[in-house]
Amino acid sequence: MYFHALATDYDGTLARDGVVDAATCMALRRFKAGGRRLVLVTGRELPDLARVFPALDLFDRVVAENGALLFNPATGRERVLGTAPPERFVQRLRSLGVEPMSVGRAIVATWEPHQGKVLEAIRELGLEWQIVFNKGAVMVLPSGINKETGLAAALDELGLSINNAVGVGDAENDHAFLSASGCSAAVANALDGLKAEVDIVLRRDHGAGVVELIDRIIADDAHLAVPPRHGLCYGELVGGGQAVLVPQGGNVLVTGATACGKTTLAIALSEEMAAKGFEFAVIDPESDYEALAHAVAIGTERVAPVLAEAIQILGDAKVNLVVCTQAMSLGERQAFLAGFLGEAAALRARTGRPHWIVVDEAHQVLPSGGEAASRFDAIGVDAAILVTLSPQQISHRVLASVGTVLAIGTDAPLAVEAVAGRLRIAPPVDMPAPAEGQLLCWLPRVAEARPALVDIHPCAQPHLRHRGKYALGDLGPWRSFYFRGPARRLNRAANNLYSFLEAGAEVGDEVWAYHLRAGDYASWFRDVIKDEDLARLAEILAADAAMTPGASREAIAEAVRERYAGPADESWRQGR
């Protein structure tokens, strides 16, 4: 189940001449019996609606007054989402002869041709109110209130995302909530302008059209309608068209060599998720996503995350989550991911959230025979983005769930061949090699699919790459930096960036300057840390004859602190 809610307009959509027939009510009950939710979204005032349609308890929430009033039929609770009309405004309309006119909790309603008088009163009194038209009706509401805002409030109370709702309507005032829904539909009697904008135009009119839509949702939920505007656009296809990922397209594998841009692509995808209201969760083994915008991070390089806390945060429909597992052993990471996937799958079954799960360094936590891989396969995880430099090490059954392979770097064809070999299928032939800023997109489930070149959309936020590993982790003896000095009397090792800064401050100016001028820092930054910007900075400092050892040391220290997460000890932040 992907679409967990149906949001329907009343007049002209669910009802004909104000009446909902028995067949439509039966279809609404059948829809709810499957575990889905119903939301009624109408411009009518609540007393009037209850008079013409007593069966409001069919709905989990009612959005009345064109988005200004939220009603829970089960409890009778009403929540006004706007402000009450100023009495002086109502009196002025009456003095202008605006009749008929009704005044609700936050709405003033009349009919054409009184819109001119309404606008005159708004201007005269200096009010920030708006006029909404609907088939001759003139509705006046506080600024910013419409059916979309009302539906969002209703779904928030139900713990659902608007991306998991199907909306259906017929007239002008339905544009807002339909355009925001995960799938939009118009009954056959809808206005032509509305039909031109929705995803589905139904063959039948009024309530019969809603019944038709319910039947389609129940029969083929996953393929109902997921247009590109509701997917993740990550680039432009070379040759024309958008490159888009959709949750129903299977899991996504992002692969390529070290420092090719895999994490940068994952960050760009998270930005697209946030922009379109998709909730996401990131499993982050190396603190790469710790400062990710639009997300709450738990766990650090020293403190392990707690599964219960992760699930509690994930339960909030408005919060995205980053879980740093760097403080855990490999076995602990796999066990954590297994538990997390089970809880996330249960939440997704109830609500459709989280929409996407990103697993970085997937080869570490999803190998064949591993606990997490077994859970991944058993519960049928979908809409996952698996980031790895070694797809060959991922469980075969997990890899078989991948519907899209995004291979980055000049070795992308080799990566595609490796995936094809692991899946025991013939690899594509004559694959182009991506240039910088491009990737190769391949659909392994599509027979004889030819990989496509994609120009990648850049991410807006900087990627502080492998901050935990390079800043505070242990790079090992073979990749550590060794301060030896011109006479090679020293052998001071630095096994990460912050120990490099510490050692650099201790060895003295002569030793520091010797390695700087020899290009040793630039080589280590470029070849081991894989940070070209730091390497270029070291080269610039080495070439400046007027640069003192102390000034160059501080310039490099400042660059490291800006780009990589450091210890909590405040002495580091003060330039120790």
Gap between N and C termini? 55 Å
The number of helices is 22
| Computed Rg | 29 Å
Strand content: 15-25%
What would you call the shape? elongated
Strand order of the largest sheet: 14-13-23-22-21-15-20-19-16-18-17
Annotation, overall tally of beta strands? 25
Low-confidence stretches: 567-576
Q: What percent of the residues sit in helical stretches (DSSP H or I)?
A: 25-40%
Mean pLDDT over all positions: 90
Structural class: alpha/beta
Biggest beta-sheet profile: 11 strands, mixed
Commentary on this structure:
- With 576 residues, the protein is of the alpha/beta class.
- Helices cover 37% and strands 19% of the residues.
- It is built from 22 helices and 25 strands.
- The strands form 4 sheets. The chain has an 11-stranded mixed beta sheet with strand order 14-13-23-22-21-15-20-19-16-18-17. Strands 5-4-3-2-1-10-11-12 form an 8-stranded mixed beta sheet, sandwiched between helices. Strands 6-7-9-8 form a 4-stranded antiparallel beta sheet, with helices on one face.
- Strand 10, helix 6 and strand 11 form a beta-alpha-beta unit.
- Helix 3 crosses helix 4, helix 10 packs parallel to helix 11 and helix 20 packs antiparallel against helix 21.
- It is elongated, with a radius of gyration of 29 Å.
- The C terminus is likely disordered.
Q: What brief labels describe this structure?
A:
576 residues; alpha/beta; eleven-stranded mixed β-sheet; eight-stranded mixed β-sheet; 22 helices
Concise summary:
It is built from 22 helices and 25 strands. With 576 residues, the chain is an alpha/beta fold.
